[in-house]
Amino acid sequence: MLMIFELMKVVVRIRKLTLIIITIIFLIGSSYIIHWIEPDVFPTPFIGFWYVMTTVTTTGYGDFVPETTVGKVFGLFLYFFGIGLIGIVIGKIVEGFGIYRKLKEEGKLKYKGSGHYVIIGWSNKAKHTMKEILAIDDHSKIVLIDLMPKSPMDEETLFYIQGDPTDKEVLEKANVLYAKAVLIFTKDNVMDSIAADGKSLIIVSSIESYAKEKEKEIYTLVEILKEKHIPTFEHANVDEFILADEALSDLMAKSAVHRGSGKLVMKLLSRKSGVDLWKINKHQEWKTYNDAFEDLKRAGANLISDRNDFNILTKLGEPIPAEAELYIICNKATYQKIK
C-alpha cells in the first residue's frame, strides 16, 4: 500500500503530456492483460478495455467480472492504482483549464480569430462602444489591448491582451492584420489633450508601420481631443477620427438653436430607437440614385448619403458610381433583407 502511495506522488509530479501517454498505455495494456488472464470471461481486448474503463472510472456495471483469483487480484490493482491514476489525470485537466482561464484573464494568450474588432485603451467610452458593436453585429468579437493587470470584464465576447500597443508582438497577439477595424481611445478625464493625442498618434503610427511591413490594410479609427491635431493624424493615414470635444459642442449648439435636434441625433446613434445607420453597396440593378432611392423606400429604408455626400435628393437622376458607398436609415431586419 505504501509503495502505491509513493508511486502516486511520483505520478503527480509528471508532466501532463507524459501523464496522458502513461495513462493511455496503462489502459490499453490492462485491457490486454485481463483478456490474457481470463480469455473466457473477456474474449476480446475490447471487452477487456470495457471492464478496465468501468472499473477505473468507478462506474462498475458488473456485466463482466473476473472469476479467477489472479483476475480478481488484478481487479484490486485496478481499483487502487487505476482509480488513483484517472483521478490525477482529471485533476491535471481541471488544473489546465484553471491555468488557461488565469492566463486569459491576465491577457497573456494570443487571439487566433479573424473578423474581430480591436479596441486600444479601456475607458467608459470604449466600454459603451463595445456594447454598441455587439448590439449591431451579433457575431462580433472584441479584442482589448491595455496595460491593466487583468481583463476589466468577464465577458465571453471580450478577449483581453495585456501589453504596449506600440509593440509589434502585442499587435501580433491581437491579430490586428485580420481585424475588421482598430479603435483607439483616450483615457477618461484626460487633462492634457496634447499628451493624449500624442499618445494616440504614436499608437496609430505603430499600427500603420506594422501594416506596411506586412503589406496589409488595417482600418483605423481614432478618438481625437483637439481639432487642430487632425492634419497630423491625416498624415499618419488614419482612416477615420472622432473629435470628442467638438462633437459634444456641436450637438449642444444644434440642440440650443433647433430644439429637439439633439434628441434626434442621439436616438439615431443609439440602438434603442429601433433604427440605425447602415452602409450598403450598390446593387447591379440600380443605375441612378433615384433607382436606389425608390427601391430602398419600398423596402422600408431611407437613402441619406453616398459616402460623405448628403445631397442625394438633388442628384437623383445622376448615375451611381461603381465605388459608391451608400448609407441608409432603417431597422436591423430591413437592413438584413436589403443586404
Automatic annotation (TrEMBL):
Record's keyword annotation contains Iron: no
Keywords: Ion channel, Ion transport, Membrane, Transmembrane, Transmembrane helix, Transport
GO biological process, one term: monoatomic ion transmembrane transport
Subcellular localization(s) per the UniProt record: Cell membrane
One Pfam match: TrkA_N
Stretches that traverse the bilayer: 17-37, 73-94
Domain called RCK N-terminal: residue spans: 114-248
UniProt entry tagged with the keyword Transmembrane: yes
Taxonomic superkingdom: Bacteria
Major localisation: membrane
UniProt topology in membrane: Multi-pass membrane protein
PANTHER family: POTASSIUM CHANNEL PROTEIN 2-RELATED-RELATED, POTASSIUM CHANNEL PROTEIN YUGO-RELATED
Name of the protein in its database record: Potassium channel family protein
Species: Alkalihalobacterium chitinilyticum
